[in-house]
Request: fold
Amino acid sequence: MIIKRNYYLVLLISLFLGFCAVLSLDAAASRPIQDKSQQQYSNLWDRVRNGFALALPLDTKTIRRIEQSYTQNPAAFERMLAGGERYLFYIVDEVERRGMPMEIALIPFVESAYNPLIKSGSQTAGLWQFIPQTGKTMGLAQNVWYDDRRDIVASTQAALDYLQYLHDKFDNWKLAIAAYNVGEGVVSKVLAKSLHKGKSVNFYELGLPSEVRYYVFKLMAVKDIIANAKKFGIQLRSMPNRPYFDQVQIHEHIDISLVTHLANISPTEFSALNPAYNRYVIKVLDQPRTLLLPTDKKENFVRNLETYQDPQFSWRLYHVRKGEKIKDIAARHGTTVKQLQTINGIARNKNPVLGQKILVPKVEVTNLANNSAPNRKHSGNKQQSDIHVVKKGDTLYHIAKRYGTTIDQIKLWNNSDENLSIGQKLVIVKG
Reply:
């Protein structure tokens, strides 16, 4: 019995070790396959074609009409696809990593022509054209400083999460794509109605609204043209099968102009890669912000930022007071009307309204403190002021205690109720 038990024990151990070895070999084998999918193609479009998985319908009249509308002006079609050069590798990589059909990577073409700054009357925004509520549901922040529906990485992750959820719900990629366009409620109702009547649930035979069917047909038409570019007389510009950008985390507020200076990139390039920012400032609120920089610029930017000693943030939010005109605000903050209009998108000959939040330069001159000091008109004494530059660890309580004043008084002098930021300059009135 002991010999027999030992025999079974040895057999079980052998089987277990063999199973582990197979898993190890399988894991080792999967890594080269994953790498190979990125390395075997020099042209990204070849990798895209290889990932297509959705079949065209038998009746392709509508798709042919859409294809014809594109191929009648091949240069325009090629330009729209070329607009995705900065973003497509990242999107393709994520789609492939999640095991999704590569047609998903073409949705931004249909939605925005790969233009994250495109404006829509329906309040949608970004490459993936999220409406505000869906964006919030998917965790995309939208505030005065930034709109993450336009953030390349955040919006792509949110869109793919949403599409995966829709696919899990409908178990059909075409229905998931249709629901992405029109909403899951509409698709669910149509599907339930078809099932109740015992009809087919094939996408092409469902009674979906015509605009939804057209949306999916349009995506399939774009896929067909890319898959058979030569047949359609389309010359797709070769795209390198490598990352266009790298990600950098920012932990402190910083002027966008300083980012472009330290990274040695143009404002246009910055906006194309970081279209989420509504102001001239990157404001770090609850968590670090992620910036995208061209791959060949990241290292220099990080090195330059580490050695940069001056304040990184030269603007703050100002709440417009009752009766204030833009010329008054400009004079109060030592700037020009034109600069305030440009930075805040205020139309010429227009004034901001009560309570509106606008960006103004941080206080830098002492006569500003004199102008804002209470009861100055009734005082015969000439008031002087200090400028306190906020350092790491500073709080309003400690600053007020240091200068023998109050927190409320500091807020009044600086017209601010914001949290402090390193490098911020506060006016402290003396006397």
User: Anything to note?
Assistant: The chain has three domains: 41-227, 245-307, 362-431. Confidence is low (pLDDT under 50) at residues 1-36, 364-383. The chain is about 50% helix and 10% strand. Strands lie at 245-250, 254-255, 281-282, 289-294, 315-319, 357-361, 384-389, 425-430.
